[in-house]
Amino acid sequence: MNAIKQHIPDFCEGFEKALVEFNTLEELLAIDFVKKFSTFPKFHQFSMNDGHMIAEYRGGREWWVVGRIREPVEGLPAWNHGIYEIWDKNEPKEVSGRDVAWSCGDSIKLRDGTVVRRRNP
Length: 121
Prior knowledge:
Elements: E1 2-6, E2 19-22, H1 25-30, H2 32-37, E3 43-49, E4 52-57, E5 62-69, E6 83-88, E7 91-96, E8 100-104, E9 107-110, E10 115-118
Antiparallel strand pairs: 1-2, 1-5, 3-4, 4-5, 6-7, 6-10, 8-9, 9-10
């Protein structure tokens, strides 16, 4: 039996993180708090990264952690670290999340050392 523990940021108070058991991908996707992520506009797909289930939107340009899953789930693709929309020398660009060293707020440092600004859609 597998299980998912709902992700709720620690700074949010008054909520209990659900822990729900499931056997199949279909059962996982039918869990209320999981299913809700797929109802928002521009939902793209669910994916996995290091035991975390990710909900991706806008073709991978926005993402949220859904929860932590105990065991791998067959049928969920690996998360590709998203796509960052940036301003580079006042030009709008997109870069792979694999090329990002860190991001904080609107500042993003690329692996080559360049610091750029996040472009809000």
